[in-house]
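Schema walk-through. Below, the input block comes first and the output block second. Nothing else is stored per chain. Lengths vary across the set, and this one has 257 residues.
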Amino acid sequence: MAKQKLIHGNAFELLSYFTRKADLIFSDPPYLIEKGGNTTNEMGGMFSRDAVYKNDGKLFDSVPTWDEIAQLCWDLLKENGEAVIMANDKNINKAQNAFEAVGFRHHRHIIWNKVTVTPARNGMNKTELALYMFKGKTRNWNNCGTDNIFTVPEQSPLMLTAKNKKLYGHPTEKPVQFIESVMSEMIDRDSFVIDPFIGSGSTMAACKRLGINSAGFEIDETYFKAAQKRMDDETASPSLFDINHTGATEFHTKEAS
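--- output ---
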């Protein structure tokens, strides 16, 4: 029976918590961002003048460097494992350089077609990118006819509340369906997935839907509670999804010794 283990703690400090290494790392780590692009030269939405936001590129209190993230993923991943790391267009090259510097090799980019666009004055963007990296030897996808572009609407009914906010309160929340679709090409029933930065738990939910073992870390208490709620909702409302919900979820709070 597959299990999902969510740990409230810092992945960098709790690296030794797992004796088993991951077959796949799928993560959307925190990184510096830029956002804007309306005709008034003011940030909108969560970045509006009414929002509590400092224009320093930080959405999160703790933002590790790409070098730190790459080394962490290398240490968590088994030989011949793979990693899918989300990054925007301004960070994708920095991320790739850091991951290759610690020993990863690059398959290609994976592209998420969000269908809806992000407002901008110089070409509105409706895609997000992910690095698809491997350590050691590569493996074939489960369906070799699948391309690297996955179309999943960002603003699906399951992601948004009536006030047009992300359902679980995370500013960079990714659709579970997108993660599930990508991972289904890379895993089998014995796979073990780790997400060092689970946010509101989309990766953990995708693993639960796929019936595979997973574990993840989240340092922020608010987002960890959101991930707990998401996993509870996945268990309580299986009729919302066209998959076989199996397994159990464990929640842990850990501190470095």
